[in-house]
Design a protein that fits this description.
The structure is a single chain. The chain is of the alpha+beta class. It has one domain: 4-Layer Sandwich (CNF1/YfiH-like putative cysteine hydrolases), CATH 3.60.140. It has seven helices and 13 strands.
């Protein structure tokens, strides 16, 4: 089982985190994989990262901008429908699953609050990161300058070709800066949008870390929907110890 860590979050003593890879196995139950294999992959990850699998909160992700504050009803068997989770509960791992979309891990070191978010084109266009940062402030009295954000591997502008209708939508949202035109084709840079939105929310530039890996280019290491079609999901995980 192989996974990698954020340099930002590695320096934090009371947080456990990881980004998994294809070598960690598929972690999603909705991609026609054998549920027993998925369960085994979750069990293995829980052992490696020293958490109780049943306490893990993952999501039924719907490409929304919904942020859910974790409560007593949330656990491995009962995932909420949303695209971001936030909590200050210890020993409650949060997980975001992806296969080209960007997995975001958040941590406020002053108030001891964590969050995860799922942001592909839809999440970026809907500015889900603003909703997450607003939730830090509204629910937990956090200040943006204390929040660390680590963004794992996602599809890069090198590979993320989109249609003219997406280009037009980006223009309407003033996101044209994240589009590249090569020949007659348009390419979208989701990471560029997320970085810009985080800065606009007051997150310090030095507190933002974005993986340079493209999931489509490196689909031998990561699951990629664009490269593979039907495929598994890798994940970002974070827990307060």
């Amino acid at each position: 089982m192989k996974f990698y860590h954020s340099k930002q979050l590695n320096s934090v003593p009371n947080v456990t985190h990881a980004f998994t890879t294809r070598y960690s196995g598929n972690l999603a139950f909705h991609v026609n994989d054998d549920p027993l294999h998925v369960e085994e992959n979750h069990n293995g990850l829980a052992k490696k990262l020293f958490y109780n699998k049943e306490a893990l909160v993952h999501m039924k992700q719907i490409h929304s901008s919904l942020v859910h504050v974790v409560d007593e009803n949330d656990n491995f068997e009962n995932p909420p429908t949303c695209d971001a989770l936030i909590t200050n509960k210890k020993n409650t791992p949060l997980m975001v699953m992806v296969a080209d979309c960007s997995p975001l891990l958040f941590y406020d070191e002053k108030e001891n609050v964590i969050a995860v978010a799922h942001a592909g084109r839809a999440g970026a266009f809907k500015n889900i990161v603003k909703n997450v940062v607003d939730s830090f402030a509204d629910k937990f009295k956090c200040e943006p300058e204390n929040i660390i954000v680590s963004i794992g591997a996602g599809i890069g502008v090198c590979c993320y070709e989109v249609g003219s209708e997406i280009y037009n939508e980006a223009k309407e949202l003033n996101l044209e800066y994240a589009m590249q035109k090569r020949g007659n084709s348009y390419y979208l840079d989701v990471g560029k949008i997320l970085n810009s939105q985080l800065l606009a929310c007051g997150i310090k530039e030095k507190n933002i870390e974005i993986s340079a890996d493209c999931t489509s280019c490196k689909n031998d290491t990561y699951f990629s929907y664009r490269a593979d079609g039907i495929t598994g999901r890798f994940a970002g995980v974070i827990k307060l110890n």
